[in-house]
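Posting for a labmate who doesn't have an account.
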Amino acid sequence: GSHGFAEGIKQAYRQQADWIWVMDDDTIPGTDALRDLLSAAGNQTIKEEIGFLCSRVEWTDGSPHYMNIPHIGIFNRQGKPFNQYDNLGALHIGSCSFVSVLVSAKAVKQCGLPYREFFIWGDDMEYTERIIRAGLIGFYIPASVVLHKTASNYSANIFTDDDKSLWKYRYGIRNSLFVVRQQKGLVSYTGKLLKHLAVIPFKLLKKRSTHRSAFIRTVWVAAWNSIFFHPQKEMV
């Protein structure tokens, strides 16, 4: 998935797209999903430079999809409250998933592409956070609705997921540790690394009822791999 997102954004940018709409292969857009994103993107009331806008992601029963809830803080990095533009139907966010996000060409030019080497999990959060750190603005547009047609409404949980998800954690944990090292430095990374090597395996023994050894091995392998994981940012 990570390679596909990176390549898709790259090709769209090279074709001089002003905005690039990114989504998963199991995303089903509502009739007006794109219109509502573009309407907010072109609203002259918003003076800040927009890096991306994301949709409200629902499951098949119309409830919010747990996997795709954007991160909203009280204030954004510029010190503006999250509801500064709620009268326009737009809320400041710090990151979101790739299930439905409209990325500006300026964000791609300034921030490059998502990390292809992530393979799966974490590429979307890292990329949208990167855009925010570059000084651009991210918005959640709840009027833009898409369906994420997964088998169930879930969010990843290493203590309850079945063994079919093991391979994803091998990448997800490695990627999340890389992001900690990149954004918070070696001290924070070392602390997180030790937690994955010692504390989380103990919790897995205590909380999981099945596949304990397999999940513990996966955590150890992912943490170890993070030490040697140094993907390079690709510009366009």
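Reply:
Got it, the structure tokens are right above this. The chain has a mean pLDDT of 97.
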